[in-house]
Write a structure and sequence with these properties.
heterodimer; A: Rossmann fold; 8-stranded mixed β-sheet; 4-stranded antiparallel β-sheet; 12 strands; about 25% strand; B: alpha/beta; Rossmann fold
């Protein structure tokens, strides 16, 4: 593996025990992420994208596989060592209100990680909080407010300020704009991009929205039913999508048409994502795939290279690229 | 028979909160024609849902419609008593909400719930209701409808539950279908399926539809006409083709450029600054003034009237002509 990577994840798997069986949430996920780069993880509900994001930070313990972050094998760290390392790895969730302490002021919420990691004295911490608030676009008079008194966009800014407090190298952003109004979404996306440039941050950017992922990411991994089914640098993926599911996701992003003739036909896949407790045989996508043949029903496709750093798990990839 | 099915005028709705009033809807007027699909687009707090819930008498105890009329086939819905309203809701007007799990009864089989609406409104016998319910489930794209009739809501996926909601809304052959963010909670591939069902039902049944959505992509791909709301007021209304080509309100234009489409990568984004208004004071001036790049003193002092700037195209902006000129250049 190249030394230039900040994060190298190999064959990461996670299974949950649930009533009625075992749920394979993530299967053999592998990817790399360079410093100051963004990996987009895209997929629908139940695809395993959030579990993968959490497993990378060990907020969920993976069953197998390896996570090497900044040269350190994260999975072998003790709890104490992990806690120290977490300074470098932060997370932003979809619903800001549920990740902030409602009984603490904005200032105290942002200060919390500094207190936990025993960084600076009281004066330095206050100064740092003011600095962070200004940077994420929160006015000083909000310091004494409680999270519920703020709008959704402002709450997400508080979460971002708190995530930045310890100068992390990696932030896992799990649907950070999905709960926000469109006008606010763009503000937060723009802020995240500016912060990435200023602080050389790496992001794992998780979203169900392929357009947002394309906008944010340098590379994209498409997940379906607990597996990464396609992965490529962003320009390559959008120019030459190989997996039928990737192409359907691309069609599912509704554009504002320029005329009635350009309106979407709403054509899409039949059916819905099967239960990950009882996944289909062969390729997990085969029951919904218009290209499925016998081999797809019986044999799980191996990951294969179809271009520069472009990997796809599909028997039909490259064969019938024009059909969908 | 008038071409206008629903005629809403000067609708004004307030909510009481412990700390004062919320001016949720402030003088909203719009019409729905027969057979038309109308999209009402806005962000949270724009008043898009409250407007429609007000008309249906569904705004809850702390809300009050303080002014306006809403004539449905000539009858003012706002003057109906509870009993009269019940004869309209579900019968003349079908409703689909965002979250089917909170709208469906969790302990009743879905078939029974589809039948119930027909039986309550005394449309047919029980036997006939069963047959009709099966046909409805088939119409909304539920495979194996006979078996599904006997399922409970929890046995269905989110997409299927939303299809059941649509079947219930269509059961009494309403003249108007109101769908409030019906696809927002669904996965993108399932959203496409449900939009397709709605479009087909609309075409086959020639009913009118009001589609309430925050998603301009959904509204412009599905609807014949689009209304944009902000701060409890109508900002703009136009036929969809006119809207996508010549929208004249700065907010409509900003909303359009806020949508990331595939291929946006590398595009410079210019987010709308600021936050949506919290309507705790009576509106004074244009609600978008604080975030508008074209704001003048007049905008802050004088609520812009909705005025006609092209055929079927109305806009509430003092500077709409300048917006259009600027775009033309």
């Amino acid at each position: 593996m190249s030394h230039s990577e900040l994060l190298v994840v190999e064959n990461l798997s996670k299974t949950f025990k649930v009533p009625g069986g075992t749920l394979k949430a993530v299967q053999n996920a592998s990817f790399t992420l360079g410093p100051a780069k963004t990996l987009g993880l895209v997929g629908e509900s139940g695809s395993g994208k959030s579990t993968l994001g959490r497993a990378v930070l060990r907020l969920i313990e993976a069953d197998s596989g390896s996570i090497v972050f900044d040269g350190v094998d994260i999975r072998s760290l003790s709890t104490k060592e992990l806690r120290l390392k977490r300074k470098d790895m932060q997370m932003i969730f979809q619903n800001p209100l549920s990740s902030l302490n409602p009984r603490m002021t904005v200032e105290r919420n942002i200060k919390d990680p500094l207190i936990i990691h025993n960084i600076g004295d009281a004066k330095e911490r206050s100064h740092r909080v003011r600095e962070l608030m200004e940077r994420v676009g929160l006015s000083e008079n909000m310091a004494r407010a409680y999270p519920t008194e703020l709008s959704g966009g402002q709450q997400q800014r508080v979460v971002i300020a708190r995530a930045l407090a310890l100068n992390p190298k990696l932030i896992v952003c799990d649907e950070p704009v999905s709960a926000l109004d469109v006008s606010i979404q763009l503000q937060i996306i723009s802020l995240l991009q500016d912060l990435q440039r200023e602080h050389n941050l790496s992001y794992i950017f998780i979203s169900h929205n392929l357009a947002v992922v394309e906008y944010m990411s340098d590379a994209v991994a498409v997940m379906y039913l607990s597996e990464i089914v396609e992965r490529a640098p962003v320009d390559e993926l959008f120019a030459h999508p190989q997996h039928p599911y990737t192409r359907v996701l691309m069609q599912s992003v509704l554009k504002v048409p320029e005329s009635l003739a350009q309106r979407s036909t709403f054509s899409t896949l039949p059916g819905e994502i099967p239960s990950p407790i009882n996944p289909p045989s062969g390729c997990p996508f085969h029951p919904r795939c218009p290209l499925a043949t016998d081999i797809c029903r019986t044999t799980k496709p191996e990951e294969k290279m179809v271009g520069d750093q472009h990997q796809v798990s599909c028997h039909q990839a490259g064969v019938t690229a024009q059909v969908i | 028979m008038s071409d206008i099915l629903l005629d809403v005028r000067d609708l004004t709705t307030h909510f009481r909160r412990p700390d004062g009033l919320v001016y949720a809807v402030n003088g909203v007027s719009f019409q729905v024609r027969r057979g038309e699909t109308l999209g009402i687009v806005g962000e949270s707090g724009s008043g898009k849902s409250v407007s429609v819930l007000s008309i249906l008498g569904l705004i809850g105890e702390n809300g009050k419609v303080v002014a306006g009329t809403a004539e449905f086939e000539g009858v003012d819905l706002l003057k109906l008593n509870r009993h009269e309203m019940r004869a309209v809701r579900g019968r003349e007007i079908g409703i689909v909400f965002q979250d089917p799990m909170t709208s469906l009864n969790p302990i009743k089989r879905v078939g029974q719930q589809v039948m119930e609406v027909m039986l309550v409104h005394r449309l047919c016998s029980k036997q006939e209701a069963w047959d009709r319910a099966v046909a409805l489930l088939e119409e909304v794209g539920i495979a194996d409808p006979h078996r599904r009739m006997k399922n409970y809501p929890f046995e269905l996926s989110g997409g299927m539950r939303q299809r059941v909601m649509i079947a219930i809304a269509l059961a009494c052959q309403p003249k108007l279908l109101i769908a409030d963010e019906p696809t927002t909670a669904l996965d993108v591939t399932v959203q496409m399926q449900v939009l397709s069902v709605l479009r087909e039902a609309q075409v086959n049944r020639q009913m009118s539809t009001i589609m309430i959505t925050h998603d301009l992509g959904v509204a412009t791909n599905l609807c014949d006409r689009v209304i944009v709301m902000y701060g409890g007021q109508v900002m703009e209304s136009a036929p969809v083709e006119e809207f996508v080509r010549h929208s004249a309100h700065p907010y409509s234009r900003a909303l359009k450029s806020s949508i990331l489409e595939i291929g946006s990568r590398g595009r410079k984004i210019a987010p709308i600054p600021g936050n949506p208004p919290v309507m705790i004071e009576p509106p004074r001036g244009c609600p978008f003034a604080d975030r508008c790049l074209l704001v003048t003193d007049r905008c802050r002092d004088e609520i812009p009237d909705l005025r006609i700037i092209a055929q079927e195209h109305v806009v509430a902006c003092h500077r709409a002509e300048e917006v259009l000129e600027h775009v033309a250049q």
